[in-house]
Specification:
- Helix content is about 45%, strand content about 5%.
- Helix 4 links the parallel strand 4 and strand 5.
- With about 500 residues, the protein is α/β, with parallel strands linked by helices.
- The strands form three sheets. It has a five-stranded parallel sheet. The chain has a two-stranded parallel ribbon with strand order 1-2. A two-stranded parallel ribbon has the order 8-9.
- The radius of gyration is 32 Å and the shape is elongated.
């Protein structure tokens, strides 16, 4: 059969162990006594699946796929260790359909076309239906994915594809629209714990030869982070250590010695990168310094580029702290310099200091909404000629054109500010900047209404009016939210954007 034989699958219950490298009843490499524990413990039926209850209801697409009651093509999307390959094994064994497995890491367009052509010939001759399983389908290029379209469309093959990456980014839209997308969730702690206990007791696993102490079990569950494959691999390593020590139990010390690094779900080129970055930004914006430090640590442990983190801090300093603490931008840019100058691992201290400063600083998005509103006005065609008094009057002939005529020099006034129109005619009196009452911006909010009254030649505020007008005067009555600037900020600002993800 046209298969890379990349996957291992157990023989039916009660079958004797197969010789290493032999082929099982379904065409996959058969399981031997030396096969890894996650392979030996792979579920033999859909009823043994754990942790995907939302896909296992009667009549659900996953049950239809395994039982072949409906010839639908499916994309399985989920994190490592959530059961994607296991489902492929169940499909391979459930019916008399011809099953072909390949990995996008090693297969190319030629391999795909060969499978499709064979499937087409068998279909014409009344042979069995072909199920094509492609693991890591996100690794296929656009051309390779295009080669599947016609065969999936006319059901020459039933496609079963697995991916750890967000298919909305990694799978072409035409292929995605021809398939049912099933999302697998990371297994919760209860499910991982259940599978660990099953592996300890089951004859396919440790067969009850060892006992797993509660503290050790808790440690393995925590380190697995929802990846049952990692949990079972760690259990196997701990069991080997316990056996070597001549003890019949796996305690916490043995488990810690066997595996001491937690699983970190993070792909610098995938959607988890953007999800974690978004959580990082939103935690700082929400002033939760502890959560922000967690997400920073998650990125650092996963090997994220420290320069990327520093760029996000520089943007955040103006986008979300802004005038409430003008020193935040200096801290962020100094941190970016430190990352370049010092590098990791020491620069993690600089990043942590900046995160603490930004998360605990008073917040204001006034700069974000101000420039957003101004840009929106320009793009909408609002504005007009530069007022004559503000035009450049230094070149020959400028005076004859009236450029600079009537300009009042602010430094000639003892207040340092004079009445004068600086904006184009149709934007005169428009308020873009609306300061908050947070942090250092409170003083700006007090001063700004006075400046605007002088510049615009408005009468002084009545004695009973407050000196600080909060978010600024109403100007000409047009709200800045007309432009969408404030609305965009409320929807999450830039968050993880700006690094090629939009």
């Amino acid at each position: 059969m046209e298969s890379d034989a990349l996957f291992s699958l157990g023989e039916p219950a009660g079958a004797p162990p197969a010789p290493a490298g032999s082929v099982g009843v379904d065409g996959f490499t058969a399981v031997g006594e030396d096969s890894p524990l996650p392979v030996r413990m792979r579920p033999r039926s859909i009823d043994e699946l754990v942790g995907q209850d939302h896909l296992l209801a009667p009549g659900a697409p996953l049950r239809q796929l395994v039982s072949a009651t409906a010839p639908m093509s499916v994309i399985l999307w989920g994190p490592p260790g959530s059961g994607k390959t296991t489902i492929a094994h169940l499909v391979a064994r459930a019916t008399d359909r011809r099953f072909v497995a390949m990995s996008a890491l090693t297969a190319g367009v030629k391999d795909v076309r060969a499978v499709i052509e064979t499937a087409r010939r068998q279909r014409r001759s009344g042979g069995p239906q072909t199920v094509l399983f492609i693991d890591e389908v996100h690794r296929f290029s656009k051309t390779q994915q295009d080669s599947l379209l016609a065969a999936v469309e006319d059901r020459t093959v039933t496609l079963l594809a697995a991916t750890t990456e967000n298919p909305y980014f990694s799978v072409i839209s035409p292929l995605l629209s021809r398939c049912v997308l099933l999302t697998l969730q990371p297994l919760d702690e209860a499910a991982v714990r259940d599978l660990l206990r099953r592996a300890v007791a089951d004859e396919r696993g440790l067969g009850g030869a060892l006992t797993l102490e509660t503290e050790a079990e808790d440690h393995l569950v925590r380190l697995a982070a929802g990846d049952v494959r990692k949990a079972l691999t760690a259990l196997e390593a701990a069991a080997a250590s316990a056996t070597a020590l001549g003890t019949g139990r796996i305690d916490l010390a043995t488990a810690e010695q066997a595996v001491d690094v937690a699983a970190v779900r993070y792909d610098r080129a995938g959607d988890a990168h953007y999800d974690v970055t978004s959580a990082f930004i939103k935690s700082m914006r929400g002033s939760d310094v502890d959560a922000a430090l967690h997400w920073l640590a998650r990125m650092l442990v996963a090997g994220e580029d420290a320069r990327f983190i520093a760029r996000r801090l520089v943007i955040f300093a103006s986008e979300d702290v802004g005038m409430a603490d003008p020193s935040a931008l200096s801290v962020a840019t100094a941190t970016a310099h430190a990352v370049e100058y010092v590098g990791l691992p020491e620069a993690q201290l600089n990043l942590a200091q900046a995160v603490i400063h930004l998360a605990t600083a008073p917040k204001s998005n006034s700069a974000t909404t101000a420039i957003g509103a101004a840009i929106a006005d320009v793009r909408a065609g609002r504005g007009g000629p530069v007022p004559r008094g503000l035009r450049d009057g230094h070149y020959a002939g400028a005076k004859g054109l009236g450029h600079g005529t009537g300009y009042r020099y602010p430094h000639d006034d003892q207040r340092g500010v004079v009445t004068q129109q600086y904006a184009p005619d149709d934007l005169a009196g428009t308020d873009y900047y609306r300061p908050s009452q947070h942090g250092a911006e409170r003083a700006v909010a007090t001063r700004l209404p006075l400046l605007r009254r002088i510049v615009r030649g408005l009468p002084a505020a009545p004695p009973e009016a407050p000196a600080a007008l909060g978010g600024g005067s109403a100007g000409n009555g047009r709200r800045q939210t007309e432009t969408g600037g404030a609305d965009a900020a409320r929807e999450g600002g830039s968050d993880a954007a700006g690094e090629g993800h939009q």
